[in-house]
Amino acid sequence: MNPKAIKILRYAATVEEFYGLQLREALDMSPTVYPMLRELEHLGLLRSSETGPIPERGNRPRVMYRITRAGRAHLADVAKWVER
After folding, report:
1. Options 1.10.287.3510, 1.10.10.10, 3.40.50.2300, 3.40.50.1820; which CATH number does 3-83 get?
2. What is the pTM of this model?
3. Burial of 71 (0-12, 13-18, 19+ CB in 10 A)
4. Using CA atoms, how far apart are residues 3 and 59, in angstroms rounded to an integer?
5. Mean pLDDT, residues 51-66
6. Which terminus, N or C, of the chain has the lesser number of Cβ atoms within 10 Å?
C-alpha cells in the first residue's frame, strides 16, 4: 500500500472522525489527499458521511471520514509486516 495511504490510516486511527482539510493540516499534506481518501473509502478502509449544512461553507455540508474495522485490521497487518 502507498505510504501516503498508510499515513492517512494511522491518523484516522487516532481520531474519532476527521475531514479533509483537518487531515491536510495535521499531516502537512497537499490537496492530492482527496483522491486517496476516496480510494481508501472504495477499499472499505474508511467510511464517509456528510454533516448538515454549514453556514461558514455557504451551507454546504462537510464530508467526514472515519476508519472502519477493515481499516484497523489492515493497519495491524501492515504493522506485522513491517516488524518482520
Report:
1. 1.10.10.10
2. 0.88
3. buried
4. 34
5. 93
6. C
